């Protein structure tokens, strides 16, 4: 299978209007993030504090995880440890199957995507329903998420109407987001009521209280875990933070960085099972210990999955989530994918302009573009790049080391640009440069901007 980012991106960019509204929609979310950040005068201090707390937590991960386990058990939570995705899936399946579960309501969790939990359970006769709206859309479409916060951002509302018609039996031709959302609500309500277990991810695990915190905008985690007696939560080892008192730092950053909201709609704390029920937490390593051991890249584990680096990345915005060979796209996915399997994801660190915008917006100050640069060095050093790229880079390196050749190349490029039809009127390179200029963020509501970009309607929808 071709995993080269540029080739996969070509499939997305072949649809120019879709590429354009994807780019604009994400830039709009990015501009909302800027607006949200601007309302907090101590924003930079919060970022410093969040980064420092995460670095501290990663430096004493084993102690904090043991402290969390002790306190969680004291709260009546059953704690399991999984070395990898396979062990995680086996544990979750054992817990569910031994209690006769056949239907699970799952809220959003990138870790379960990473472990391949859905197909694992489905192959063993357990239906698993993603209850986050975007996740449910991509699940019905048989696709993975294309964004870590907005999983169906690549889909137009007309396509969702078609999908719901086909899978949920709604009327053909629906495209009103309110009607589509209501159809999803009715469909999901039945699933919530029928589920015998709820499955969630974990945004933060609090070492000093032994509790877990799950953040959603739709309340689906709360619904999925308060109706059935069994709750299974999957958490990566890096989710632990030392104290409940640290949580506020992250919560103030998370929603603003993700969508510009001052706060997520639901921040749910679980400090034990519901009365008469069970709460299981499965703590998963799956390669994270190796990343912790690599000082230059350790900080990538500080990620709180806000998606801001995706929204700002000029490459992600224009190439879409499916051009990335790793399940997490964008700058953070390129780092994590290449760390996990540099052979399979060799092209990902090159899917970046290295503009540094990802590092600038990251709420926990991960130095993403330098980590990408470091990974490029490793990948090139191991000879993992295809020969045309290697040859091109060798040529560039040779030219850059010889100023006379560089100047000659510049003169040649200017001559080519001047000779291009129409280019003389606006100067060399200007046409190309103007195309790359981003317009001002629209001064209208998100929905109106979205409709305008998607439909090309030029204004408010009727
Ligand atoms: S790397 Fe930073 S900006 Fe990107 S998703 Fe993670 S926390 Fe957000």
Q: What percent of residues are in strands?
A: 5-15%
Contiguous helical run count: 23
Strand order of the largest sheet: 1-10-7-4-2-3
Mean pLDDT: 92
- Ligands, deduplicated: iron/sulfur cluster
The CA-CA distance between the termini, in Å, is 45 Å
Structural class: alpha/beta
Describe the largest sheet: 6 strands, parallel
Oligomer: single chain
Give the strand tally. Answer: 10
Low-confidence stretches: 424-429, 434-438, 458-462
Fraction of residues in helix: 40-55%
Rg from alpha-carbon coordinates = 23 Å
Shape: globular
What does this protein structure show overall?
This protein is α/β, with parallel strands linked by helices. Helix content is 53%, strand content 10%. The strands form two sheets. The chain has a six-stranded parallel β-sheet with strand order 1-10-7-4-2-3, sandwiched between helices. The chain has a four-stranded mixed β-sheet with strand order 8-5-6-9. α2 packs antiparallel against α23 and α3 crosses α12. It is globular, with a radius of gyration of 23 Å. The site of iron/sulfur cluster (SF4) has 15 residues, from α14.
Features:
about 450 residues, alpha/beta, six-stranded parallel β-sheet, four-stranded mixed β-sheet, 10 strands, disordered C terminus, binds iron/sulfur cluster
Q: Summarize this, please?
A:
By secondary structure, this protein is of the alpha/beta class. It has helices spanning 5-13, 16-38, 43-59, 61-74, 85-97, 110-115, 117-122, 133-141, 157-168, 177-194, 220-226, 247-258, 288-292, 308-312, 314-319, 330-340, 357-361, 368-381, 387-400, 403-419, 423-426, 430-436, 446-455; strands at 78-82, 103-106, 127-130, 197-200, 204-206, 211-216, 230-236, 240-241, 266-270, 278-284.
């Amino acid at each position: 299978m071709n995993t080269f980012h540029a080739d996969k991106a070509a499939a997305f960019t072949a649809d120019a209007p879709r590429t354009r509204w994807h780019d604009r929609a994400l830039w709009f979310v990015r501009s909302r993030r800027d607006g949200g950040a601007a309302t907090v005068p101590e924003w930079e201090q919060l970022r410093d504090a969040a980064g420092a707390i995460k670095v501290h937590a990663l430096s004493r991960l084993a102690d904090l995880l043991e402290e969390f386990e002790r306190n969680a058990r004291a709260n009546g939570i059953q704690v399991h440890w999984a070395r990898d995705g396979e062990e995680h899936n086996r544990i979750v399946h054992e817990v569910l199957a031994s209690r006769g579960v056949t239907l699970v309501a799952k809220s959003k969790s990138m870790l379960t995507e990473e472990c391949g939990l859905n197909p694992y359970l489905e192959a063993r006769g357990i239906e698993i329903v993603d209850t986050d709206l975007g996740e449910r859309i991509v699940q019905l479409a048989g696709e993975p998420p294309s964004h870590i916060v907005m999983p169906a951002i690549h889909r137009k509302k007309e396509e969702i109407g078609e999908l719901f018609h086909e899978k949920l039996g709604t009327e053909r031709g629906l495209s009103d987001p309110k009607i589509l959302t209501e159809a999803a609500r009715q469909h999901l309500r039945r699933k919530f009521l029928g589920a015998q277990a709820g499955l969630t991810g974990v945004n933060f695990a609090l070492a000093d209280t032994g509790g877990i915190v799950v953040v959603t905008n739709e309340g689906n985690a709360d619904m999925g875990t308060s109706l059935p007696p069994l709750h299974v939560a999957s958490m990566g080892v890096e989710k632990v933070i030392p104290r409940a008192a640290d949580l506020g730092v992250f919560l103030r950053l998370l929603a603003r960085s993700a969508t510009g909201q001052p706060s997520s709609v639901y921040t749910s704390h679980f400090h034990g099972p519901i009365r008469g029920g069970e709460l299981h937490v499965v703590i998963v390593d799956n390669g994270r210990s190796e990343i912790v051991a690599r000082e230059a890249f350790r900080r990538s584990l500080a990620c709180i999955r806000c998606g801001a680096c995706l929204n700002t990345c000029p490459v992600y915005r224009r190439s879409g989530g499916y051009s990335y060979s790793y399940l997490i796209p964008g700058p953070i996915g390129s780092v994590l994918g290449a760390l996990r399997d540099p052979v399979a994801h060799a092209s990902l660190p090159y899917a970046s302009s290295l503009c540094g915008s990802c590092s600038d917006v990251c709420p926990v100050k991960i130095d993403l573009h330098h980590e990408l640069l470091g990974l490029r060095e490793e990948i090139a050093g191991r000879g993992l790049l295809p020969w045309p790229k290697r040859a091109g880079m060798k040529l560039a390196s040779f030219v850059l080391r010889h100023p006379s050749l560089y100047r000659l190349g510049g003169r040649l490029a200017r001559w080519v640009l001047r000779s291009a039809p129409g280019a003389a009127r606006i100067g060399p390179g200007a046409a190309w440069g103007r195309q790359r200029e981003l317009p001002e963020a629209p001064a209208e509501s998100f929905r109106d901007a979205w409709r305008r970009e998607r439909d090309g309607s030029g204004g408010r929808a009727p």
